[in-house]
Amino acid sequence: MVSLNRISEICGVSLGTVSKALSGKPGVGDATRERILSVAREHNYRPNRLVHAIQRGRSMMVGVTCSQFDDEFAGNIVAGMFEALYQDHYDAMVIQWERSVQDGVRALSNLAGRRVDGILMFPPAAYPEGAYLDELRSFPNPIVVVDQTWPGCGYDLVGSQDVEGAFAATEHLIELGHRRIAHLGFLHGSTGRDRLKGFQDAMIRHGVAIHEKWLRDLQSYPSEEPYALTRELLSGPDRPTAIMAFNDEVALQALAAAADLGLSVPGDLSITGFGDLSVVRHVRPQITTVTQDPREIGRRAAKLLIKRIEEKHENQAAPAAMQDRLPARLLVRQSTGPCPTAT
């Protein structure tokens, strides 16, 4: 690949003139600029991005931290991020958040050392504290948090309308006549807490009693715990007629537990999920769920981060943190039906 020095020799101009021409800066005649661009194309010149980063004060590189890359939801978010980053000529450096910290590697310090312009962050499975928060506070560039947040977060967030989506799913069950409704949640993350709030808000709005014995909090996720908890809920004589699950994977385990106990879904038990993973359209019965748009979440998060990077580069005052929550819509399928005691 040809160098800037070689282009300057071929064209008989200074290195500074070549640099101005290739970067579109003024001070170069049209004929000279065209000659330089033509030689660069002919010799397949590729700019040194590190040099350009130093010149611009930006690396055109962002960090992406995630605790789990191998599920469909996270994968679609990352795909949306990469799509938006590519459109704006940014590259990404991806790290697994928990593993980096557990191995003693100061993840954010490493990203800062590599001059990333900002971070798109899937928070850890549990709320960050201690070393996590210290690293976040020391990072000098913008951070956009994706899907999950935590008390006192203070960063921009892009996610889903978890409260509203859970409210709609619960209200759907109530409208079908269900009053004995269980909730299988994961309260270690903000999405789980928000979905529990949506569940509780709908129950209170419609005057339906909330039974503490049917509110179950998963202690580990992902795991086989949802299956075991569902079997426990359904094995006694006093059992719920409907289960609102934290997400589609939990709903699928609840479906399996009901089948193993010989219960019909939705004849004996209605189940709702959250997320609209592709698998819930291919099981029978198909799972009633709340759809999210993870690819668009990723795109919006990346666009917002780029906007914050531009604002910082232009020395604009840092704006107040914002939350951009995409609509979550109920999709009624085959796993919900009238309450058996109401027919």
From TrEMBL:
Keyword Transcription in annotation: yes
The organism's taxonomic lineage, starting at the top: Bacteria, Pseudomonadati, Verrucomicrobiota, Opitutia, Puniceicoccales
SMART domains: HTH_LACI
Keyword Transmembrane assigned: no
A Gene Ontology molecular function term of the record: transcription cis-regulatory region binding
Sequence ranges assigned to domain HTH lacI-type in this UniProt record: 2-56
This protein's UniProt keywords: DNA-binding, Transcription, Transcription regulation
Name this polypeptide is given: LacI family DNA-binding transcriptional regulator
CDD domains the UniProt entry points to: HTH_LacI, PBP1_LacI_sugar_binding-like
InterPro entries linked to this entry: HTH_LacI (IPR000843), LacI/GalR-like_sensor (IPR046335), Lambda_DNA-bd_dom_sf (IPR010982), Peripla_BP_I (IPR028082)
Organism the protein comes from: Ruficoccus amylovorans
Source organism, top-level taxon: Bacteria
Record-linked Pfam families: LacI, Peripla_BP_3
